[in-house]
Amino acid sequence: MYIPKIYKSEDLQLMKEIIRENGFALLISNQEKLAATHSMFLLNETEDGFYLETHISKANFQAKVLKDGDEVLCDFLGAHSYISSSWYDHKNVSTWNYEAVQIRGKVKLMTDDELYEHLRKLTFKYEKAQKCPMLVENMGDEYVRKEMKGAFGINIIPTEIYIASKLSQNRDEVNAERIIINLMESNDADSKKIAEKMKNSRDF
To answer: What is the pLDDT of residues 66-81, one digit of tens each?
Structure first.
C-alpha cells in the first residue's frame, strides 16, 4: 500500500499489536485470478523474526490454487475513525485516521500436525474468555481430525512489511487537540482509541 512518509511506521511492536488485536483479516492472492478471503490469522514470533498462519476452507478457490512459494498479501486494519474538517480552526478537507498493516509473503502449506496445532492455538485464543470454553482438547482427537479435512492451512513467511499510522501528524497542536476532543466525545470505541493514540504520540 502507498504510505506517505509522514504516516509510515517502522514500529514492529505496533505491527504485532495491530495483527493480534485484528486477527480477522484479508488473505489476498493472484494465482489464475485475483482473490481475497477474510480469515483468522495468528502471528508467531521466532528467533529471527516472525511468520503468520491462517486457514481457509478447502472448498475456497484459493485453496485449490495456492502452493508452496506462491506470493500472497495479508491486510490488517486496526483502529480507524472519520476526521471531520468542521473540527479545524480553518477551512480544510475531511479525512480518515487509521492504523493498518500489510504483509507480503511466501506461502508454506501446513502439514496435518501443523494444522492441528494452529487450530488448537486459534481456538484457545478466542475461547479462553468464554464462560465454558470449548477447547480443542475437549473435542477429542478423532472429532478434530475429522473436521480438519475441510480446512486448508497456510503459513506465510514475510518478505515485505508495511505499517501505516495516520494520526493527524500533519496538524498543529491546536487542531490536533480539537480532533482529540471531538473523538473522545464519540460513542465509537475506535474513535476513542485513535484519540488515545494521538494523545500518546504528542504527549498531551
So the answer is: 999 999 999 999 999 9
Distance of alpha carbon 45 from alpha carbon 17, whole angstroms: 13
Domain presence at residue 146: yes
Q: Do residues 42 and 23 make contact, with C-beta atoms less than 8 angstroms apart?
A: yes
Residue 113 pLDDT greater than 80, yes or no: yes
Judge contact between 155 and 51, C-beta under 8 A.
Answer: yes
The predicted pLDDT at position 122 comes to 94
Find out whether 96 and 78 touch, Cβ atoms under 8 Å. no
Least confident of 54-63, 96-105, 127-136, 166-175: 127-136
d(Cα 60, Cα 56) in Å, to the nearest integer? 7
Q: Is residue 196 part of a domain?
A: no
Q: Is 79 helix (H, G, I), strand (E, B) or coil?
A: strand
Look at residue 129 and tell me if it is in a domain.
Answer: yes
Q: Which three cell numbers mark 165?
A: 499510522
| Beta strand extents in 85-191 (DSSP E only) | 95-109, 151-166
Say how many domains are in the chain: 1
Examine residue 159 and state whether it is found in any structural domain, yes or no.
yes
**Domain enclosing residue 84, as ranges:** 5-170
Q: DSSP state, 87?
A: G
